[in-house]
Every structure is written in C-alpha cells, then in structure tokens.
Specification:
This protein is mostly helical and 245 residues long. The chain has a two-stranded antiparallel sheet. It is globular, with a radius of gyration of 20 Å.
Length: 245
Amino acid sequence: MKKLISIKEMRKICQKNSYDSWCSKKILNKFSIYFTWIFSLTPITPNQVTFLMILSGVIGGIFLALNGYLNDLIGVLFLYLFLVLDLTDGELARYKKVFSKKGKFLDFIANDIIFIFMFLGLSFKIFNNNYKMFGHLLFHNPIVLILGLSVIIFFLLFKLSSYYAKEIDEDFCRSFSKFNRFNKKIKSIILKISDNIFYDTIVIMVVIIGIIFNVSQYILLFYGISFMLRYFIAIFLKLNSRRVN
C-alpha cells in the first residue's frame, strides 16, 4: 500500500518555488493544499480539476444574478472555491508531474469564462434590485448593464489571445516606463497598483468582498470605468512610444 504523504510534505512538493501572487500565497493556498491532497489519492487529473474550477465559477456567477443575500453568499462561496481550485489544478499537476498544452489552454480561458458570468451576474443582480449609487436608484437602470458589458469587453480585449495579452501588457509597461511626465518612483507605484487591481485573482476577491459588504454597485462602477481606461491608456502609450527593434 502506498504511504500517505503529509500535508507538510505536499506543500514542499507543490507550493515551493511557485509563481503564485501574494494574494494566493496569503489567502488561498493555505486551503488549496488540502484539496490537492485529497485529489492526489484519486485518479482525478489536473484538467478535470480545472473543469470543476470552471463549473464552480459559473455556478457562482449564476447565484449572483438571483435575488436574496443568501444567494449572494452561495455565489461568493462558489467564487472562492473557484480561486482555491485555480491553485489546486497546478499543485496537482506538479505533484503528479502531469503537464499538457490542453491544461495550459483550459487554465488560460477559465478566468475569461468566469469574468463573463461573474460580471453578468453582478450586473443583473444590481439591475433587478433596489441598489443606490451616490443617492441614485439603479433599479432597471441601463447604466448598470453598460458598466457590466464594459468590464467584460475591455477585459476580453486584453485576453483575446495569449499573444495579444502579452503584446499589450508588455508594451504598456515598457511604454509607460519611458513616458517622461512622471519620475521613476511614481511610475513604479502606478505600475504596481495597476498590476494588483487588474490581476484576475484580486478582481474576483474584490468582487467577493464587495458582495459580502453589500457595496457591489461601487465595485461594478470602479471596474466598469477602470478596465476601459486601462485599455485606452495602453493603446495611447503604445501609439506614442518609439518602436523597439
């Protein structure tokens, strides 16, 4: 009989030298390793975990669209499970030493799918309920749906393909670094803030917190505007920078 590996040993194998974000390391991988440990005892593959992850995120987005705070909490639970499983599939792949292009592709499109369901669910939730923003009622207000679509459209423009995402992101950082209207320290701070507030895991965590504290309308407003601005600023910087040979 195969000897059971301990959680401590599992962490050394699966989480050492990982490239996970600070949010994942501080909040998520403390739980993901237990899922990884359970899945390691089964024939479940990393790709199958990724499918479970996507399913969890889709369910979370659907529950957000339903009325009632209990449904909101269920949606939050499934979104959090999505984030945990997002680490689990990679940890399981490292443990079982199973890597594939299909797995990378599934992992790549997972956030795209979940962003669509999450922000659509959030938009319909606010659109169909008596939410107020700066004193204005948002019930059946088309602005809510416009903000939700804005997030989805401009997020997907960055993630349309792996090449396009790399092209825009790298050019944004390189072009902004050469922009002469700010000193280096300010540029560094702005880029660091940008990297964090638009990072997929951070965005989902912010949405989760916004729903728990019942301020999701302001989260939708922030990302509806900021994703659009980020995209056009990146394009502006790209068009106004000298091409690097």
